[in-house]
Amino acid sequence: MHRFDRIDEESQSAPPVTFTGRKTLVAAAVAVVLIAGALVIRPVRAGDDARPPGPSERAAAAVGMGAPAAAVDLTALVADREKWVAAHPDDGASWAVLGSAYLEQARRTADSRWFPKAEKALKRSLDALPAEKGNFDAMTGMGTLANARGDFGTAKKWGELVRAQAPRRWTAYPVLVDAYSGLGDYKAAQKALERLEQLHSGLAARIRASQVYRDRGWREDAVLAMEHAGGAAKSPTEKAYVLFRLGELAWERGETAEALGLYEGALRTDPGRPEALGGRARALAALGRGGEAVRDYRMALGRAPVPRLELELGELLESLGRADEARAPYDVLRTLTARGAADGVNEEVVLGLFEADHADPAAAVRRLSTEWARHKNVQVADALGWALHRNGDDASALEYAKKATDSGMRNAEISYHRAVIERGLGDEAGARRHLQEAMRTNPAFSPVRAPLAKEALAAVGRPAPGGPENMQPRTPWVEPELPKPNPKKQGEKAEQGEKAEPSPSPSVD
């Protein structure tokens, strides 16, 4: 067979390649057309919108997650929901969002007039969709509102109601952590935190973890948890809040310069945070920059009139020799606490401490005794013990001072209060121990009481003179002269001892 004939036969036995390639191209083209058609025909979904969320949407997301919202976003959310519920009064979900937005406004501005508005909106939500039908957002909002007002017993009831109906709904557990802590049940708060961490690992959980650890005296764990909260923070407002809380932890540890840097970081991130301004004022006062501290306190109070900051400003002015100027913030404190009480806000601890130190200690004892019957937490125990001391009853005061210090929380002010009470009872050793603890924890904890603590520690640093003779020798101790050993004689005695030693007798089996 000719060579070309063989080649022709081989070429005829194989299928044509051009035909297979054409089929592949046609199939690919058909698939592309079908996919494109499916993408065009499928209706648009909410998740397909690539536009960033608007101000009201950002605020709604933050409020729903229990996170702080920016002031501009919060204002937009309030306006949006108010307009909506005016046209749709039976929309229970929108009423719950509006109530939570009002509550966040109250916390951000420290204006107690937002609290009744929040309560009214949340109750409208519960009227539209009762708790029995699972209005969890409104129930959680009511619990958060009660915590913000300082009514921890009511907050506990709402939180436990949500937990009973929906045990896996994580938003109930921040309410319970705050409520149990306010009631002084720190073990229950820790259990609620553990359950929260099983269900959720976001910003709210990390902030509550830091709070629980701080209350138990686990300072390093508290800082680590708050740093993790910073990692979970998404918006500048959330990051600024975390920086402020880290500043508070650094301040309580006595690391004033670090606290100042954290407060300033919070202000750079969110200049509208008044609590960070108050923290910076506290740190500046501790560093001896009293004029700047007064300026920052007044700026903070101009943005958010917080009673505790009014008390701190008044005491700073007193420490600077400006007692006449201190009367103004003290008068404002009285006005603010009275207004807050009318709006259901509990400021009994701050008002009791003010009365104990600057007004009527007997009234402080009555006020704080009533508060102790409701909320047996560390802050109330410390304030009541101090008020009893200022009223001249150190024996009763010590019982509450022990409750405050034995909880594990490490706080210089609380340690100082117990030391002063113990010194009043003649317990110099106990006073010395707790004064040293206060100075180790934060040597500049108060512009008024920190200098007094240093003076007291110097006074009780050594036992008082005039005690027994064996405690206070009249002449300095001199080391006595002891006889020097003679190595030669000691060697001779050792040799004689070896010779005199009898040899052991053989044993008899």
TrEMBL record:
Q: Name one Pfam family in it.
A: TPR_16
Q: Does the keyword Transmembrane apply?
A: yes
SMART domains attached to this UniProt entry? TPR
- Note down the stretches annotated as region Disordered: 460-509
TPR repeats at which positions?
A: 240-273
Species for this entry: Streptomyces goshikiensis
Q: Which UniProt keywords apply?
A: Membrane, TPR repeat, Transmembrane, Transmembrane helix
Keyword rRNA-binding recorded: no
| Classification lineage | Bacteria, Bacillati, Actinomycetota, Actinomycetes, Kitasatosporales
Q: Which domain of life is it from?
A: Bacteria
Query: Which InterPro entries does the record cross-reference, listed alphabetically?
Result: SRFR1-like, TPR-like_helical_dom_sf, TPR_rpt
- Give TM segment ranges: 24-41
Q: Where is the composition biased (Basic and acidic residues)?
A: 489-501
Any coiled-coil regions, as ranges: none
| SUPFAM superfamilies xref list | TPR-like (SSF48452)
The protein in question is named Tetratricopeptide repeat protein
